[in-house]
Amino acid sequence: MVDRIGGSLAAGELRAGDVLRLEDVQERYAVSRTVAREAVRVLESKRVVTSRPRIGVTVRPMSAWNLYDPQVIRWRLASPGRAAQLRELAELRAAVEPAAAALAAGLAGQGVRQELIAHAQALTSAARDGDSEGLVAADAAFHRVLLAASGNGMFAQLAEVTEELLKARRDLLLLPERLDTAAVRRHLDVAEAVAAGRRAEAAEAVRSIVESARDEVERLLDGDATLA
């Protein structure tokens, strides 16, 4: 129910400033009053609507939404505005992950270093075998560990955002037919730089990864009118 309403909001079928009564929600989505009320409560927690007695349920502008919420990200990726969401996610990664890598190189213990190397090796194997599912899983795990290893709790919570982007590239067919093995190998460069405590080198290797991924998404978006 929440996904159905959220999808309508992200698609612009319900616009900022639109006001619905709870009865409208029940009728529009053919649900009970209890379900409608609970769905509105969840949507309020994501800041996409406000609900006031004698006024109703008011749709908030997208700028007020919790845009870091993985469910909100999925709504936007399923909407006609998916290209803008993909670009925003790619730009966020490019801004944050190099800094996270530099911090991780100064803080990471042996256990974290071993995890990064293991995920980088799994990523390399998946790329070699043409296994896109395995590649996305290993890539998401690698960046989750890296962000957490930064010691910055706010960076760590961006791991879910990164994972949604990686899944979206797979689901929207925005992975190249032939995977870039050089880009994949750079994950090993990151792991080795972090393990050696080389902060600048770790940051530069991550920057190369995320900027390459961003450029590739842009090329694929430019070539697919259905995603523009």
TrEMBL record:
Q: Which InterPro entries match?
A: GntR_C (IPR011711), TF_FadR/GntR_C (IPR008920), Tscrpt_reg_HTH_GntR (IPR000524), WH-like_DNA-bd_sf (IPR036388), WH_DNA-bd_sf (IPR036390)
| Keyword vocabulary terms for this entry | DNA-binding, Transcription, Transcription regulation
The record's listing under PANTHER family reads: GNTR FAMILY REGULATORY PROTEIN (PTHR43537:SF44), TRANSCRIPTIONAL REGULATOR, GNTR FAMILY (PTHR43537)
A Pfam family recorded for this sequence: FCD
Task: State the organism of origin.
Answer: Nonomuraea deserti
Bilayer-spanning residue ranges: none
Protein name (Swiss-Prot/TrEMBL)? FadR family transcriptional regulator
The superkingdom listed in its UniProt entry is: Bacteria
GO terms assigned for molecular function? DNA binding; DNA-binding transcription factor activity
Which residue range or ranges hold the HTH gntR-type domain?
1-62
Cross-referenced SMART domains: FCD (SM00895), HTH_GNTR (SM00345)
